[in-house]
Amino acid sequence: IKGLAAGFDAHRVSEIALAIETLVTEGDLKTAESKVPELQSSIEDLHRELDRFTSSG
């Protein structure tokens, strides 16, 4: 996710994905899981922005 987000210049999505990846690597699954809703929300925001961009023509 973080690589794809970086390709779209979606820094917030990339930052959250990296944080989750780091937490999982460190074995802190509970905190990583708690960040998933934030990641989902940021991805939804990105999706809306991309929709606006592609429909503006």
Notes on the protein architecture:
The chain contains 3 helices and no strands. The model has no long low-confidence stretch (mean pLDDT 88). The radius of gyration is 13 Å and the shape is elongated. It has one domain.
How are the SSEs ordered, and which strands pair?
Layout: H1 2-7, H2 11-25, H3 29-55
Helix pairs in contact: 2-3
In short, what is this structure?
By secondary structure, the chain is mostly helical. The chain has helices spanning 2-7, 11-25, 29-55.
Q: What structural class do the secondary elements suggest?
A: mainly alpha
Roughly what percent helix?
over 70%
User: Care to count the β-strands?
Assistant: 0
Shape assignment: elongated
What is the beta-strand fraction? under 5%
Ranges where pLDDT stays below 50 over 5 or more residues in a row are none
What profile does the largest beta sheet have? Answer: none
Distance between the termini: 26 Å
Output the number of helix runs: 3
Radius of gyration: 13 Å
Question: Main attributes?
Answer:
3 helices; mainly alpha; elongated; 57 residues; 0% strand
